[in-house]
Amino acid sequence: MILGLLVVSSLNALSAIPMALRARHDFARLGRISLPVAIWTGAFLYVHAAATVALAWLDRGSISEVSLVCIVVGLVIASVGAGLIAAGRREYASRARVYGLVEDKLIATGIYRYSRNPQYVGYWLVLLGAATASLSQWAFLLAFGIAPIIHLYLWGVEEPHLRSAFGQEYRAYCSRTPRYLLFKG
């Protein structure tokens, strides 16, 4: 079962390449993400999250014996992550905007004053929390493995689109707001 989840996760990670290329194409052609690409990007994140949580459960204790402290710390980390996701979605005020189907304004209020990507940070914290609560080597691998994929997607797809779409407004936003909460990048 663990091997199967690792294979699914690996194939899902590889799908990020054509997904990113298709997203760039959509941004260039439509100025937004198409519905099929929005579904693909959402599925990409949900498949990764489901595999990570499943591995956290199946592989729990592979690093060390799981203690109540690990569980509590992991749940706190995951809860902070879920809160960031919720705050980001609330600020977008539209499911269509969350998934990139509508690109009509630059969101730089609420949680977006502190991070240009709070939902991605939150997503990563949920995965890190699951890995911490379970002390699973495979869950940690998937949590840390997704971080560079998301970073490259942001750097190579979303940010060029936002620079093009919002020009100086986006550049000013970047100069005052960190990419990942505490990390300017």
Structural description of this entry:
With 185 residues, the chain is mainly α. The chain contains seven helices and no strands. Helix 3 (35-58) runs parallel beside helix 6, helix 3 (35-58) packs across helix 7 and helix 6 packs antiparallel against helix 7 (137-176). The longest helix has 40 residues, at 137-176. The N and C termini lie far apart (38 Å). The mean pLDDT is 94.
Task: Give the structure's gist in a few sentences.
This protein is mostly helical and 185 residues long. It is built from seven helices and no strands.
Key features of this structure:
0% strand; 185 residues; mainly alpha
* Overall helicity: over 70%
Secondary-structure element series:
HHHHHHH
Shape: globular
Mean pLDDT: 94
- What is the structural class? mainly alpha
State the major sheet: none
Radius of gyration: 17 Å
By DSSP, the count of extended strands is 0
